[in-house]
Structures are given as structure tokens and as C-alpha cells.
Design brief:
With about 375 residues, the protein is an alpha/beta fold. The protein contains twelve helices and 13 strands. It has helices at about 15-20, 20-35, 40-55, 65-75, 90-100, 145-155, 205-215, 235-250, 250-265, 300-305, 335-345, 355-370; strands at about 60, 85, 105-110, 130-135, 155-160, 170, 175, 180-185, 200-205, 220, 225, 290-295, 345-350. The mean pLDDT is about 95.
Length: about 375
């Protein structure tokens, strides 16, 4: 009788919960018994703690990472007729943050670190350019010294999409603190993940923080006095409280992911596989939200791993400029060849908190015997 192979999931969220199960459950019961579930002490405390962790003055907690992007551009006054430069290889939410405000995305190819190629930004700047959106994809920091210099030279706003870079550093600074606004997602699979949707912005600008607090609460600073047409984008007390628990352990959780990534980088040896390239400058830190390899025969690799009980994901198979949602932009295949090549070849292999050394070895061994 055949036994079913134990699946190594691409990401096992239950493992992360079990690491600190008692603390999560106690906090959840505490919040349920408090009788206060929206915009209370847990949200306020989390905002203070996350701002301090990032090295920022203000944090405003929101309902999602997408809302963080949307409200960031709104707070900066970027909208109809404006252009925002963004890398082509990103999740579509990055672009939606631009277009929902009426602005136009201007795509730039990525570099070998999956970040925006800073050397290709200036050629895309026009009189309509108002901002650059940097995405620290997969937890690898973008080249922020070059990007910030460009923003200063041309008087551009800088927004950072940090949905995958909780704790990532470039030099001496955390991602999210280089520009006008840093935008975070706390979706459950993130390095600092909630148990539902969640997001936040960080900023040094008190007016920006105040405006976004108003926007998130129906455009109201005082109850029933609505100054602008706002939205409902409030991180609830339960998610804030559970995030506070996880934040206490974030450094150890990050170190665990770093150890797994180090094994992969040192022990995967297959000419058919292109390994990720973390930045290695002084102070640079990759937090390994995903461990993304590339393979020209991706489908064969995925099938090979699946037969051995190893799950994979593709981040992301369709770049935004080729999605149906953005067909109105008129971009055809071949417009961004590097972005499109990445979309056709990237594959995320398992990396998650609580992953055993035996599971890591199985992934490594399976990739090493894959025949190109």
C-alpha cells in the first residue's frame, strides 16, 4: 500500500502561529474581553512600536498594504495627469496604488537584485513625473542612495513599497525611512504578518500622518465632522494586538529565515538554477520574504518538486503591464524584456518560520538532482 508523501508547503502559516501560540491566544482573549475593537489602545500602541522599530516618527495603521499605497499618493497630492515611475516586476497592488489616484505608471526594468534599476530611472523622467515608487521586492533592498539622489535632483516625491521588507536595511537605515512615505502590508504571509488583512504607513511628516489618519476614518478627525471624502481603512484592535505579539519576536523570526536562506545559497548547486543575489554592502540586510530562484525550464522544475512533495509558488507570473487590468496602457509583450523574462522564470521555494532542517535538506537535494 502506497503512503502519501508529506507535503512541504511553500509557506506553512500554522507553524508560525504555533511558535508563540500561548501569547497569541492570551492577547486575543484580552482584546475580546476589553469590549473595544476599533481604533483603541492596541492600535495606538502598535503604531508607536512599529514607528520606533523602523526608526520613524509617525506610523498610521490601516486596513491593508494596498490602502497604504493609495492613501500615500493621495496625501502627497499625486493624481490625474501625474506620472509615477515604478519597476515593472512587482505585484499589481503597487501599480494600483498609483492608478486608483488617477496617475499614470511609468515602468522601469529591474536590476539583478529584483529591484528597480536605478541607472534606468532618469531616462524616464518627464515634466509630468511627480514621484518614484520603489518596491523592495522579496525582502531585498533597492539601491536607495542612487534613488534618493535622483529624487533630490529632480524634486520628486519618494514612496517605498515595503510590503515584503519588514526589517530590511540598506546601509544604516530601514526600508520605508528613505522617502516621504513607507507603505507596509501585514497580510498573514508577510514576515510581520497579522491573522487577517492589515497595513500601515510610516513617515517623518506630521501633516502627512494627520491627513492619512483623517482619510482612513471617513475623512473625519472628529466624529461626524467629515472634512474630506475619506475611506474606511482602520486596522482593528485584534490585528494590532496580535501584531504587537509577533513584533516582539520579529528579530528572531528574521534570523531564522536568514539561516534557511544561507543554507540554500551555500548548498544548492545546479547549473539550471539562478539563485537570488542579496545586496552585500555595509549594513545591507535581506529579510527573505521569499527565496526566489530562476529556471528556464520552470514548469519541469515545479513538476519535479511536486512529485517529491515540495510546494512552490510563482511571484509573479503576469507582470502588471501585461495584465488585463492595464491593457488600456497599450503595452505589448516585449515592452519590458527583463521583467517579462523574470515573470517566465521565477519560482519561490519553501521558506517559512518553523521549517525543519530535514525539510530544508529535502528541498536542497531535490533541486540539486533536477536535470535541466
Amino acid at each position: 500500500m502506497m503512503t502519501e508523501k508529506k507535503q512541504i508547503m511553500s509557506n506553512d502559516l500554522g507553524r508560525g502561529f504555533n511558535l508563540h501560540k500561548k501569547e497569541y491566544e492570551e492577547k486575543a482573549i484580552e482584546i475580546l474581553r476589553s469590549g473595544w475593537y476599533v481604533l483603541g489602545k492596541e492600535v495606538e500602541a502598535f503604531e508607536q512600536e512599529w514607528a520606533a522599530h523602523c526608526g520613524s516618527r509617525y506610523c498610521v495603521a490601516l486596513n491593508s498594504g494596498l490602502d497604504a499605497l493609495i492613501l500615500a499618493f493621495r496625501a502627497l497630492g499625486i493624481g490625474e495627469g501625474d506620472e509615477v515611475i515604478v519597476q515593472g516586476n512587482t505585484y499589481i497592488a503597487s501599480v494600483m496604488g498609483i492608478t486608483i489616484n488617477g496617475a499614470s505608471p511609468i515602468f522601469v526594468e529591474p536590476d539583478e537584485h529584483y529591484s528597480i534599476d536605478a541607472d534606468k530611472i532618469e531616462e524616464k523622467i518627464t515634466k509630468r513625473t511627480k514621484a518614484i515608487l520603489v518596491v523592495h521586492l522579496y525582502g531585498i533592498p533597492a539601491r536607495m542612495d542612487k534613488v534618493t539622489a535622483i529624487c533630490q535632483k529632480y524634486g520628486l516625491r519618494l514612496v517605498e513599497d515595503c510590503a515584503q521588507s519588514h526589517g530590511t536595511t540598506y546601509g544604516t537605515k530601514m526600508t520605508g525611512t528613505f522617502g516621504d512615505i513607507g507603505c507596509f502590508s501585514f497580510y498573514p504571509s508577510k514576515n510581520l504578518g497579522a491573522f487577517g488583512d492589515g497595513g500601515a504607513i510610516i513617515t517623518e511628516n506630521g501633516k502627512v500622518a494627520s491627513d492619512i489618519r483623517m482619510f482612513r476614518n471617513y475623512g473625519s478627525k472628529k466624529r461626524y465632522q467629515n472634512e474630506v471624502i475619506g475611506v474606511n481603512s482602520r486596522l482593528d484592535e485584534m490585528q494590532a494586538g496580535l501584531l504587537r505579539v509577533k513584533l516582539k519576536h520579529l528579530e528572531k523570526l528574521t534570523q531564522e529565515r536568514e539561516r534557511i536562506a544561507e543554507r540554500y545559497l551555500n548548498e544548492i548547486h545546479n547549473d539550471a538554477i539562478i539563485l537570488p543575489m542579496p545586496r552585500t554592502g555595509p549594513g545591507d540586510r535581506t529579510v527573505w520574504h521569499q527565496f526566489v530562484i530562476r529556471c528556464k525550464k520552470r514548469k519541469a522544475l515545479i513538476d519535479h518538486l511536486m512529485t517529491r512533495g515540495i510546494g512552490t509558488l510563482i511571484h509573479y507570473p503576469i507582470p502588471p503591464h501585461l495584465s488585463e487590468a492595464y491593457s488600456y496602457l497599450g503595452h505589448c509583450k516585449g515592452f519590458l524584456p527583463i521583467t517579462e523574462d523574470y515573470a517566465d522564470t521565477v519560482c519561490s521555494i519553501p521558506i517559512f518560520n518553523g521549517m525543519t532542517e530535514t525539510e530544508q535538506s529535502k528541498v536542497i537535494d531535490a533541486i540539486n538532482i533536477f536535470e535541466k
